[in-house]
Specification:
Blueprint (H helix, E strand, L loop, with lengths): L7 H15 L11 H8 L3 H13 L3 E4 L3 E4 L10 H10 L5 H23 L2 H17 L3 H17 L4 H5 L1 H16 L9 H13 L2 H25 L5
Antiparallel strand pairs: 1-2
Helix pairs in contact: 1-3, 1-4, 4-9, 5-7, 5-9, 5-10, 5-11, 6-7, 6-10, 7-9, 10-11
Length: 238
């Protein structure tokens, strides 16, 4: 997935403008004052236009003769873009975003597990096993736990051998990473994740499509409970 954070002036310019738009600081339909932005951000007009090209590709802004560069309606934004999701998490602009992404996962991943049980090759199982091993070895290291979980779910999509499903990792990983940071960064907010993930792999290895789908549904239900537990401990804040 394209990530613009940390890519020098270009990346910083994209981030600043995008987050202002997504937070509502720059409203839908508003025309951007390029001269003012150029001066404020201390960038060349060329650099500013290059940044706006990124946002244009994501459906966030557009340009018309006589009107200039303007913010498109939210309905036109590519809300499935990994950066757009990440920017919203960063600003907390949609408190229900994690719940929405969990709903998407609940639709996609059980079906992916079923397909993986029918199609996974030896190499796919090896990658899933490696992710399980990393998960077991993460212990109290939140960053390692997040990385292992991401690797597992990426491997699951790859094991479907459906290139369109594999591309869903752009959506899934951003929400999953945010969920993992919330849960794994809260110490006692979760139980050992290995057994629930291993149940999915065991069913895939056995070629049991129904069991794989069921195991994934149970894993996702547990993930939702983990998030709710953390929220309760934080006093209900999302």
């Amino acid at each position: 997935m394209a990530q613009y954070a940390g890519r020098g002036v270009h990346g910083q310019t994209v981030e600043v403008i995008a987050r202002r738009i997504l937070s509502g600081e720059i409203a839908e339909g508003a025309t951007l004052n390029l001269a003012a932005l150029q001066e404020e951000l201390d960038v060349s007009l060329t650099a500013l236009r290059e940044a706006l090209k990124v946002l244009t590709a994501k459906g966030i802004v557009d340009a018309r003769q006589k009107r200039g560069t303007f913010v498109r309606p939210r309905a036109d934004w590519n809300l499935l873009d990994g950066d757009v999701i990440r920017w919203q998490f960063a600003d907390g602009t949609d408190p229900m975003l994690l719940d929405k992404l969990q709903e998407v996962r609940a639709i996609i991943e059980p079906a992916a597990a079923r397909l993986a049980a029918a199609r996974a090759a030896v190499d796919d199982l090896a990658v899933l096993d490696a992710a399980l091993a990393d998960m077991a070895g993460a212990h109290a290291d939140p960053a390692a736990a997040v990385a292992a979980d991401l690797a597992f779910h990426r491997a699951l999509l790859a094991a479907t051998h459906n290139e369109l499903l594999v591309r869903m990792e752009v959506v899934m990983e951003t929400g999953l990473a945010e969920r993992d940071r919330l849960v794994h960064g809260h110490g006692d907010g979760h139980d050992d994740p290995v057994p629930s993930h291993r149940a999915v792999v065991d069913a895939i290895r056995a070629g049991d499509e129904g069991a794989a789908e069921t195991a994934m549904r149970e894993l996702l239900a547990k993930a939702v409970r983990d998030v709710e537990k953390v929220r309760e401990q934080r006093g209900g804040n999302r």
